[in-house]
Amino acid sequence: MKRNLLAAFAMGLFALAGTVHADQLDDVKKRGELICGTLGTSQPFSFQDAATRTVVGYDVDMCKLVADKLGVKVSYKLLSVAARVPELNEARVDILAANLGYSPERAEQIAFSRAYYVSPQKLMVRKDSGLADAAAVDGRRVAATKGSSSEREIKRILSKSQVIGYTDSSAAYLALQQKKVDAQFASELVLVRLQLQSPPTAPVTILEKSVFDESWGLGMRKSETRFIDAVNQILDQAETSGEAAKLFEKWFGADTQYKLQRSFKIAPIAG
């Protein structure tokens, strides 16, 4: 009887050990699919292609790069800005590629990969506003995407301003055009895209000096150390091979409307 109980106990411990040691990297490979959380509303990072009706963009391609190197297919789950971290930590997605700016506070909740994009964060105002720099904007109404690091940081930096959160950058831009706010705060690229779309009758201008530069990383669960290491190794290899630079050029380079030069390399985020 005692021997049977000991055997059952040992088998239970073995099963428990198997559960403990099973991790996300193994799960993704066994499933054959990487589930990537992305926004789907942020051109050219992740947005719906009008011709194919599929989600495309720089973030989308970064997730596909990771999936390809892991030897699995990729699927995308569209998330709101506010839902990114909860969806990841509830294991409804495996990884985030969703305009995810690094902050010490956010790094307490999730793990960040190497920086795969560095984003100057700037202010945009109506051209006739007379506002020339951040100091002039401080004390005015400022729009930002609700739940984003941009919203949090501009509240801290422009402490006299009333910062109003909107569901996405397009909604914030509409508020600027409707004069509900005096400025919009977002990444330079988001603002350039909105500026290109602005009508001649309502021109906007992006203030030249960035408020700060923000490193973006792929988001992962902090407990999944093997998965984190694998993703970082893939990103390092993409930098060395030139794949990362090619993706940047595809979405932001000389043949695009943005015509940006890559001023960063994939590297650990200082923090």
TrEMBL record:
Pfam families: SBP_bac_3 (PF00497). Residues 33-255 form the Solute-binding protein family 3/N-terminal domain. Residues 1-22 form the signal peptide. One of its GO terms (biological process) is amino acid transport. Keywords: Signal, Transport. GO terms for cellular component: extracellular region; outer membrane-bounded periplasmic space. SUPFAM superfamilies: Periplasmic binding protein-like II. PANTHER family: ABC TRANSPORTER GLUTAMINE-BINDING PROTEIN GLNH (PTHR30085:SF6), AMINO ACID ABC TRANSPORTER PERMEASE (PTHR30085). Belongs to the bacterial solute-binding protein 3 family. This is Cysteine ABC transporter substrate-binding protein.
